[in-house]
Amino acid sequence: MSRHAQKLRDHGINPCVAETDATTKCLNENNYKKDMCTAYFLKYKNCRKFWHAIMMQRRRNGVKPEMPSADERKKILESVGKPY
């Protein structure tokens, strides 16, 4: 597995691994008919939007690292409820 692929699979770096896996599973089960997996695509897209907005806010506020750690993300989701 390439370094880039390893980063994408790392829960510490990518907050949307579960959504990625669900989308891939749906595509595999439905013979890659994208129209059958629209809900999964939307969940993934909303996940990415949510965490991108968090990352941009932290960047504006000068918080490092810009992407919260896996533990911080869990706390954020618990306080907000899963928005996607």
UniProtKB/TrEMBL annotation:
Transmembrane segments: none
SUPFAM superfamilies recorded: Cysteine alpha-hairpin motif
Record organism: Pipra filicauda (Wire-tailed manakin)
Location of this chain's protein in the cell: Mitochondrion intermembrane space
UniProt GO BP: mitochondrial respiratory chain complex assembly
Name recorded for this polypeptide: Coiled-coil-helix-coiled-coil-helix domain-containing protein 7
Keyword terms, alphabetized: Disulfide bond, Mitochondrion
Family membership noted in the UniProt record: Belongs to the CHCHD7 family.
Region: Disordered, residue numbers: 62-84
InterPro entries found in the cross-reference section: COX23, Cys_alpha_HP_mot_SF
PANTHER family the record matches: COILED-COIL-HELIX-COILED-COIL-HELIX DOMAIN-CONTAINING PROTEIN 7
GO cellular component, one term: mitochondrial intermembrane space
